[in-house]
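By way of example, we now present a protein record of this kind:
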Amino acid sequence: MGFSDIWWQQLVYCMIFLLILLVALTGNLLIIIIFTFDQHLHNPMYFFLKHLSFLDLCYVLVILPKAIVDNLMNSSSISLWGCILQVFLVVSLACTEMALLTVMSYDRYVAICYPLHYEVIMKKGTCIKMATYSWLSGGVSGILHTVTTFSLPIKTSVLVHQFFCEIPQLLRLSCSNEYLAEVGAVAITSLLSFVCFIFIAQSYMHIFSTVLNISSTVGQSKAFSTCVPHLAVMTVFLGAAAMAYLKPAEDIPSVFDLVVSVFYTVVPPTLNPIIYSLRNKDIKAAMLKYFKILYFGSANC
């Protein structure tokens, strides 16, 4: 289901989605390229940011291109296997993002609260293991939710009241009321997400406590500028996902369902490069250097 049946509104939504897609692709690709080739940015924080940018790149490509094409072609169909693949990828990437945000909060906690032990604790091998476990946890969650959702009998002719295949809306289309397996999967994922949230909140409590004890105002400002964007992205992502998956199902789907889904699928991947990475002085300096090399042939110009 699209956002509107009126052709000019479809065109407007198409242009908005296309603009969001271009912003997300440009920002995340820039970060991936710069973090890969700039040796000065090869530290744990930027290592995890590169993984987050790659994940966000995949996230928007799973959802937005299909939505844009549907609006342009006035089409609203998706194959069963296409729907299964979309559900798997959306859930996998969302759960991986939650795990990565948790790991990144721990990285900031160690960097600010234990700066002298940072290089010892956040070794290269440890960072690789954390990133690997994050991706694996997302993949396992994706398989679990996909299997439990599509093991239920679904009507042959269906209208998904969402602009992509979303599990809560798919469950409404089932011919069976036996949702126990998927309810169990949602409960497990919700519990793990809550544990991640508690871990992140506890990390930031320690971070803010340490920052407030810094005598230098500049030091406080620098620490807060690093942490607040991370906390903002996490709050928007987790809050919108919780509303989408935990709120009671309604007989008549509302526009609110569409808006909430946009906030946990489209907004975070678009905002992450802007408020979390591109505001960073080191990243902006690296971009400026590479732009100088690209246009003038020397970083000293």
